[in-house]
Amino acid sequence: MDRIKIFNGKIITPYRFLERGAIIIENGIISCVSGEDVPVQDAVTIDARGHYVAPGFIDIHTHGGGGFDFMDATVEAYLGVAETHARYGTTSIVPTTLTCTNEELQQSFEAFRKAKTLNHKGADLMGIHLEGPYFSPEQKGAQDPKYIRIPSKEEYERIFEWSDDIIRWSAAPEIEGALDFCRYAREKGVLMSIGHSDAIGERVTEAFENGFTHITHLYSAMSGVKRINGLRYSGVIESAFLIDEMTVEIIADGIHIPADLLSLVYKIKGPSRTS
Predict the structure, then answer these.
(1) Is the peptide bond before 133 cis (omega within 30 degrees of 0)?
(2) Model confidence over 32-74: pLDDT tens digits?
(3) I need a labelling partner for 189 at 20 to 30 A (CA). Which of 37, 84, 159, 180 fits?
(4) Per-residue pLDDT reduced to its tens digit, 238-269
């Protein structure tokens, strides 16, 4: 039996901290969590030296790290990002592309495929997240507007032919052809997420019913309450709060969203629906 003992660490449990605690792992499964050291025979021992011991983070939207960007489209970049994230406690990541040319997408897909087989030291490369190109120009944010366009069935079918690794796709549901695109992607098992969208509430509800179940960087590059011809309409932000089952993602750096709005998101959506 393979045994690992991590001891002398501040163990984070769902309920409390265990100062100077120990964790026993047998054949890859945690068999014991204790507030004190536990004697174990024939175990590989790791002294946490008073540091925190916690489950690995999972980052479902990251563009790079360690001086690398996934749009570099090289194996070196993918492995460099994975190793950087692992160094800081993130054990699984979803590499994310930007709105770009299809040639650049293909190159990044190929680099991902190769890196996945060579990645032995970095965070697990779970799959690819495409951020764009099917966005609202009014909510382009940092996306290059010259590559933003409406969904073309011929195009997105071809993109899925290029890669079996796509697990998430962000798009604006209000643009022409977006709901058909969403239904097609959902059949492929892809998580569909609303991002860079100027949709009103009615459109968001329809999008949710057709498979858009997640929100990309809530509050950033998306519609809020707006006035149209004298009437006010809710936007993506308000709809994300109103639809209980909708999950949301936030950039919790205190810059994209201030602390009080972070508290609001946490209060309304809760930890189970916030990433």
Answers:
(1) yes
(2) 999 999 899 899 999 999 999 999 999 999 999 999 999 999 9
(3) 84
(4) 999 999 999 999 999 988 999 999 999 999 99
CATH number given to 57-273: 3.20.20.140
Count of Cβ atoms closer than 10 Å to residue 141 Cβ: 15
pLDDT tens per residue, range 192-229? 999 999 999 999 999 999 999 999 999 999 999 999 99
Sign of CA dihedral 112, 117, 120, 126: positive
Q: Which CA distances in Å does 197 have to 4, 152, 243? A: 47, 18, 17
Question: What long-range pairs does 145-154 form, CB within 8 A, spacing at least 24?
Answer: 147/99, 147/100, 147/101, 148/99, 150/175, 150/176, 150/177, 150/178, 151/175, 151/176, 151/177, 151/178, 151/180, 151/181, 152/177, 153/177, 153/180, 153/181, 153/184
Quote the tokens at residue 218.
Answer: 């809530």
Query: Is the domain covering 3-53 a CATH 1.10.10.10 domain?
Result: no
Mean pLDDT of the chain: 96
Span between the terminal Cα atoms of the chain, in Å: 36
Token pair belonging to 151: 């969904």
